[in-house]
Amino acid sequence: MNATNARAGAPSSVPRGRDTRLDLIRGLAVLTITLNHQGALTHLVGRDGRDVPTLTHLGYSSAAELFFLLSGYLIGKLYLSRDQEGWWVGASKRVMERSLKLYMWNGVLFLLLAAIVLFGPHALRQATNYHLLASDGLRAVAEFALLYRRPKFLDILQVYCLFMWTAPLLFLVLRISARLALLLLVLPYVLVQIDPTLLPLDSRLGGAFHPFAWQLVFFGGMLAGRLDLLGRFTRWLEDKPQRAAWLLALLLGSFVLCRVDRSNLLLGAYFDMPGVDKRTAGPVRLLHAVLVLLTLLALPTRWPAILSHPLARMVSNVGAHSLHAFCASIVLNYLAALMWLARPADSTYFALAFGSLALLLLLGQVLTAWKRPAARAPAQTALAPAPAAAPAPPAAAHVAVLRAPAQSQPQARRPAGREAPQGGLA
C-alpha cells in the first residue's frame, strides 16, 4: 500500500462532524479581540498603563483577520462547494438571509450600547462616537442605518453586511471563471496598496476596514472554502506531522521580527516593516494572519489531545457561538470602560479584563448546554477527508481523497448547506 492509499484508509486525527479546531480558533479570536478592544477603549477614556498581552501585541496581524478569513471560508465551504445547476441562486439567498440577521444584531447592539453610554460621562460618549447621538439623534441613527457612521467597534458587522450584499455578484462571476473572480478580487486590493485614494470610496464606509482591501480577506477565504484548501492543508500536515513544528517555528520567528521592528534595537532603529497597515490590510499583515491561522489549525491536528483539554473545550464553546460571544464582548467592553471611569486604576482594568474573559467562557458553556438538546440536524462537515469507502487503484484513491468533501455522504451535507455557518460571524 502506498502513502496515498494509506492516508485514504487511515482515520484522520481530526474527528468527523463539526470541526472543533475551527471553533477553538474562533474562540481564541473572540477572547483576543475582547482584550484588545477593552484595552483600546479604556485608553481612550484616560487609562495610561499596560494592556493584557495577546497575540496581537506579538505580531503584525490581529483577530479581525481570523474572523474575516474563517467566516468567508465557511460560506465557501458550506454554500459554494457544490456545482449543481443553479447553485448560485441558493447561495445568494442564504447569504442575504445571514446578512439580514447580522444587520439586525448590529442594530440591537447600537441601541443597547446607547442605553449604556448616554447615561454615562461625556468622556465615554466622546470615546465611543456616541456624542452625535446625544446632539443629533435622528441623523446619527440614519447614518448608522446607511453604514456611513458607527459607534466604536460596530464597524466589523457593518463591513460583513456590505460584503454579503455584494457576494451574489461574485457568485455570478464564479459561474464564468474562478480565475476571473480571483483577478477581480486581487486588482482592487493591489490598487489600494499602491494608493488608498485611487479607488472612489466614501471615507465613512468601513470604518477601520477599507472595503476594497478587506474584501480580499473575506472573499479570498470564500474561494479557499470552495476549494477546500484547509482540508487539503490537513492532509498535507498529516502526511508529515513534523510540519506543525515548522509552522510553529515560523510563527515564533515572526514574533521576534515584529518585536525587533517595533523596538529601537538593532534593525528596529533604522527599519520600519512596510505592508502592515490595518485599514488597508497590508500584504505583510495578511501573510502573517494566514500563518497564524495555519499554525493554530496545525497544533491540534498534530496533537489532538489539545482539543480534549477542559479549557480548550470552553474556548471552543465560545467559538461555536462566536456571533453571540462577539456581541456580548462589545457590551462588556463598554461596561468595563464605564466602570473603569468610576474607579480609574490599573487593578480595576485587569480585574475587568479577566472578568470579561470569565463571563464569555461562561456564556459559551450556557449556550452550548442550552442548544445541545435541540441539536438534531447534522453538524458542520469536518475539514478532514473521509475514509475511503472501498479499496481503489492508487490514482483513483488519490482523486477520492481530494474530492471526499464534495462527494462523500451527499445527504448528510445538504442540511448543513441550508444553515448559516454555525457559530461564525458570517
Brief summary:
The protein contains 20 helices and no strands.
What does this protein structure show overall?
By secondary structure, the protein is mainly α. The chain has helices at residues 3-9, 20-44, 55-58, 63-79, 87-117, 122-127, 131-135, 137-145, 155-176, 178-194, 211-226, 229-239, 243-262, 283-302, 305-308, 310-320, 322-342, 346-371, 394-407, 410-417. The longest helix has 31 residues, at 87-117. Helix content is 69%, strand content 0%. It has one domain. It contains 20 helices and no strands. The chain starts with a helix and ends in a 9-residue tail after the last helix.
Tell me the number of structural domains. Answer: 1
Class derived from helix and strand content? mainly alpha
Mean pLDDT: 83
The Cα radius of gyration reads 22 Å
Strand content: under 5%
Structure characteristics:
426 residues, mainly alpha, 69% helix
Q: What layout of secondary structure does this protein have?
A:
Blueprint (H helix, E strand, L loop, with lengths): L2 H7 L10 H25 L10 H4 L4 H17 L7 H31 L4 H6 L3 H5 L1 H9 L9 H22 L1 H17 L16 H16 L2 H11 L3 H20 L20 H20 L2 H4 L1 H11 L1 H21 L3 H26 L22 H14 L2 H8 L9
Helix pairs in contact: 1-19, 2-4, 2-16, 2-17, 2-18, 4-11, 4-14, 5-9, 5-17, 9-10, 9-11, 10-11, 12-14, 13-14, 16-18, 17-18
